[in-house]
Specification:
heterodimer, A: about 70 residues, B: about 375 residues, alpha+beta, Naphthalene 1,2-dioxygenase Alpha Subunit, Chain A, domain 1, 2 domains, 8-stranded antiparallel beta sheet, about 25% helix, globular, iron-sulfur (chain B), metal-binding (chain B), Ring_hydroxy_dOase_asu_C_dom (chain B)
Amino acid sequence: MARDPAQIDAELHALHGGPDAARLSALHEEALPHMPTMQEQRFQLTHAWIYALVHGDEARICKLEQQLTDLGGL
Amino acid sequence: MLDLASLAADLAAVRQPVAQAHGLPSALYTSEDALDLERRHIFHGGWACIGFGKDVPNPGDAKPITFLGAPLLLVRDKDGALNVFENVCRHRGMILVEEARNFGGVIRCPYHSWCYSLDGRLRATPHVGGPGINTHEAVDPATTGLTPVRTGIWMDMVFVNVSGNAAAFDDWIAPLRARWSDFEGRTIHHGGPASSFTLEVNCNWKLAIENYCESYHLPWVHPGLNSYSRLEDHYHIEHPGEFSGQGTLVYNPQLSQNKAFPDFDELPEKWDKAAEYVSLFPNVMVGIHRDHFFAILLEPVAHNRTIEHVELYYTSAEAATGEAFAALRASNAKMWKEVFVEDIFVVEGMQKGRHAPKFDGGVFSSVMDSPTHLFHDWVAARLGA
């Protein structure tokens, strides 16, 4: 069941600056459907991508880079 | 303030033959300006040791090192290669890594999140073209990676040339590598945390090198060593422009009645009793024996303060980390620490002595002090004399 955007935002704030890059990436991706415009989606995807890079999850990086490319972010 | 006119004259006096020469002038030991001069002409201008491969043993390990003001980053990449970069983002010059850690993925700048692969490539520039636009024609990843620092590795020691202007590393290290060719290509194994210690010494870095170069002081400062390794059992090691030191002909470790470290395989017979101790200019002091090796990295933190980082290595993984050798390793580290601590009062005493208004750098014994003079001559040459 999809979480409320405020819950996602609260968890993002709680984890900010911490070491759990995988979770930060997942949270930004979870927030994606709540973004009404392509620009906002691209913004969230960018953050999901950066934290996936930090975590070093190659499969996830490839997937997010493809999504970003499709939206004109790469 | 360093008086450059009188310094030039003093350095010319240093460069005379040993019997006529004076030692380096006191100003080079007592002035912050002198360390700044040496930083440019010696430490950043040539090859110098900044750390050890064992400091970053695993892929993804990174260790920031501030080397006389230069922020550097020692990194082991995914393939196991060791590189040194400037520890700053190419964007706004932010420090990238504040403390030693392992990176599972990229190195992310904490400011605008530009990301770099462990091999230094610029991997991501988020929002660089506007929100959600992650590329821009003005930022070319091919030319905007981490700035590499020239690096060479020998006997696990990591050397850098910050200026980028020194001779090729292989040419620079070749003379000592040739002298110790019997040990070339051998794997050395660090003895772990108990084989690693530091000493903080209130003296200029040069005094530690000078003291290490010569055997003249052994009977007076190290009576324990003299009990089996007399002054007459030592010889000078002199390679102008590179290194100097001393060797012994009676190496005979007596750490245990019934146990000894394994030797390197098939060494020539001369190493049964020989050991050599060399100051590799400017800032590393090394000792080679048939059964172990040590390196002392000098970190000059001020003109009158130096940290000595001591690391001990052995000939096999078993000798370096095996439980069967733990007590012997502890005894060896204790023995060397006692020897190095015995040297502290003399180097600190010489540091205090450099404030005597009329001390002129001192005179040398052409018989006993030539390795020390060789070092002084090298410093003078590097400072432009």
